[in-house]
Amino acid sequence: MPLSADTFTEAANTDLVLHVPDTGVGWTEEENTTAGVSKAQVNATSDRVGPTADSAGQRILYSIQPNPTEVEYDLQAKIITIPGGTQDDPSGCLARLTDASNYYAGMAYTGGRNPDTRMTKVVAGVRTNLGTTNDAWAATDTFKFEIRDATKKIFRNGGEVLSSTDNVLTAA
Known about the structure:
Blueprint: E1 14-15, E2 26-32, E3 40-43, E4 48-51, E5 60-65, E6 72-78, E7 90-99, E8 102-109, E9 116-123, E10 126-133, E11 142-148, E12 151-156, E13 159-165
Antiparallel strand pairs: 1-3, 2-5, 3-4, 6-11, 7-8, 8-9, 9-10, 11-12, 12-13
């Protein structure tokens, strides 16, 4: 069984930080550019988590607790909707999150002019691109970010779409 997992089941709409996951102890807001506005919420009707209307277009990062202590683990999510328009709308997972300035990110950019998959490393707030591939993600696609020591991989519906071998994340 995973250390932390969540099916986002609630009887009423609930702010993510107040929601208790299926396994694990809770969710922590790591970064929020909405200046204190309500950010992410578990929708009781759909059993999904997503941004509130007043947080659209903002950068919001959450971590499930406890944080993994292992160096090898998988993060997986299902893409639910594909936004329209020309915005780059990422969905994805962060790994080895130390704080909002130090982590790895595997992202599926589902909207905008050029949908793609990106893997980045952020150290001391400086973003380094580890790889990009031109992929058209669809609603119901499964996104998996695999962390194996120095090797990171992104899978779409079980098929590998991007990989990178990078040194372990260290803060500057």
